[in-house]
Amino acid sequence: MALTLQEIEHLLVTQGPLQYGREAVSQLEHALQCAQLAEQAGESPATVAACLLHDLGHLLAPGGGTHEQDDLHQYVALPFLRSLLPDAVLEPIRLHVDAKRYLCTVEPGYWEALSPASQHSLVLQGGAFSGPEAERFASLPFAQEAIRLRRYDDHAKVPGLATPPLAHYLSAVRALAVEAPLSPA
Ligand SMILES: [Fe+2]
């Protein structure tokens, strides 16, 4: 069930041109923009890698969700990545939807600034957290990384924005991977 680095690259290249939900960018453009925002902010390689891969679940099960159903994409990729990458990559991915639910609760104006598609998916994902749920979330390991990932995610939807190529960010993933590199960095 585990993916190799080569298979992750293949997935991003072949499925990446799919539209990112109802946004005006592709899945690959969104992933690259998210990773670029993290890199520009000085995030660790693990958080940059999490940003690149946070929506891999959409590519593993394209069309898994519908307008009326949550695809739970934050969990889909985890079994495929668990033997390859550390928790510092996996946990922000797992928590990035809950980070949106958290920010909607604790940050005035956050919900209003979400794209219409993201506002719609929030409802399917369970809506804003209650106060106790938000407190519990904030205490989890890697919650802060997930929250920052979420903010990059929200802004990684700019049509036509130039980014470094996929190979640039895959080298960050490769450096973190448990397996021996399949090709020279
Ligand atoms: Fe995303």
Describe the structure.
It is a single chain. This protein has 185 residues and is an all-alpha fold. It has one domain: Orthogonal Bundle (Hypothetical protein af1432). It has twelve helices and no strands. The longest helix is centred in the middle third of the chain and has 20 residues. The radius of gyration is 15 Å and the shape is globular. Fe (ii) ion binds next to loops. Fe (ii) ion (FE2) binds next to loops.
Proportion of residues in helical segments:
55-70%
* Share in β-strands: under 5%
N/C terminus separation:
24 Å
Ligand list: fe (ii) ion
Write down the domain tally.
Answer: 1
CATH class: Mainly Alpha
Poorly predicted runs are none
State the shape. Answer: globular
Number of strands: 0
Structural class: mainly alpha
CATH architectural designation: Orthogonal Bundle
Q: What's the helix-strand series?
A: HHHHHHHHHHHH
Total of helices: 12
Mean of residue pLDDT values: 91
Brief sketch in words of this structure:
By secondary structure, the chain is mainly α. Helix content is 61%, strand content 0%.
Task: Looking at this protein, list some descriptive labels.
mainly alpha, globular, 185 residues, 0% strand, binds fe (ii) ion, Hypothetical protein af1432
